[in-house]
Amino acid sequence: MERTSPSGGMSVDARVEGRDATLLAALRAGDEAAFAALVTRYHASLKRVARAYVSTDAVAEEVVQDTWMAAIRGLDRFEQRATIKTWLFRILTNQAKSRGMRERRTVPFASLAGADGEEPSVAPDRFQRDGDTWPGHWAIPPRPWQDPERRLASLEAREHLRAAIAALPPTQQAVLTLRDVEGLESEEVCGLLDLSAGNQRVILHRARARVRADLERYFEETA
Amino acid sequence: MIAYKFLCAGGVGPFSRYAWPLPRDGAPGAWVISSGDAARCRAAVHACRVGDLPWWLQDELWEAELGGEVTAGRHKVMAARARLLRRVGGWDAECAQRFADACVARARDHAATALDRADATDLAVALRHAATPRRVRETVRDTVAPEPARVAVSMAGDAAIRALAGAAVVAAYIAAHTAARVDGPDGLAAERAWQSAWLRAELAL
Amino acid sequence: MSVDEVVCREFAELATEYLDGAMPDETLELVEEHLAMCDWCRDYLGQIETSARVVADAPQTAPPAPALEALVGAFRAHTTEDGPP
Fold first, then answer.
1. Percent of chain A whose pLDDT exceeds 70
2. Contact A1 B155 (CB under 8 A)
3. Contacts of B13 in chain A (CB under 8 A)
4. Count of domains forming chain C
5. What CATH number has the domain bearing residue C52?
6. What is the mean pLDDT of chain B?
7. Is B4 near chain C, with CB under 8 Å?
């Protein structure tokens, strides 16, 4: 596929590294405001990922607390070979895994992923069937979305979106959070969650497809 | 090697959304270079041979020069680099509509063949008489086809509906699959070859 | 149908693989042939992209105030006990 050459200026990696270095220095100097901001920034995402490993919301909350405690202790040793974000999620998945095991939840993440079932990403009745003129083609095609970002700007819409994400199965929430909310790369997410690339992609796709379906309903209802 | 590219209005790639450098003052557009292994679909610059055109119809048709290693795909060629030489002016909205209408007539005739084979000769005659896409749509709507011809007739109706909406690439797809329905994979290949020949003649390629 | 193609129901499962650039070439060719003529699947693809984008802007629940306080306290205690370098 044709690609244009990257524009000049600092790469994304260099900018993140710079911001991380500044933040790290502040944290090591005991900047409480910086620490509080960090905790606030990552709370929701950490909890969503934790929730994929443990049985209740409350336990997930505890795992997140334990993660921050471990991060505080490990701050001095952190060598910036990874980003602060990746580092935090690594601590979290380690904490979540051991907590999950202590809960006697010996099922590893990957099997949980399989437990989401072989559901198709789109309801079968949206497509034509054998015997119809065009089996497998859209029977009820998606309606084009007019200016979705603007329609999602209201408080009500944003709350609806938050609820839609919260309604996803825990494993889908975890992968969607790491890939699409936190912007981690596919390989990184596979490493964090012990998932194959293929598995991770299927889970991500199902999560996105559910959000899409939810938004489709929302846009129809609020048209 | 000379080949062709269909681009969206303004010389923009339909998948890459890449804005192609356009020819100016008689000079070709700048070379666009593939991002990696030119034999890999994902990395290469894509183009059409005449036989590939019906799959890729878009707003604008451009003649292109390919450079470096050129690999054949299923219905395209992949090259290490390409540049646009000239716009094929004959391909415009009117031409696309004429092509779509021609595809409807073809789909209609294949459906009529299916009716003949199902011993519904009267229905076949009536369908062949539908001279425009509108008439094809109406005739299909009013036809109760015997089961062996039902799908082919429905396909012809869909070709008409999509052609009336100006969707030439869809009308072509439907005509090809109506032919496949009636005459199998050979029918499909023959139909696509007919479509390419129509475009070659119409656009003097 | 013995025709080699990807149809809408199949593409609906492949959209993320397509966006990730993780599709094997053979499938990618079929997908592009399909997208070239299926505006509905192009709409679906765009909606998947949009969904992936907007979740990043969804409101995030904040840490409960007592939990945050406890953590800041722990942070304070840890950095104080180490003292300045």
1. 89
2. no
3. 2
4. 1
5. 1.10.10
6. 95
7. no
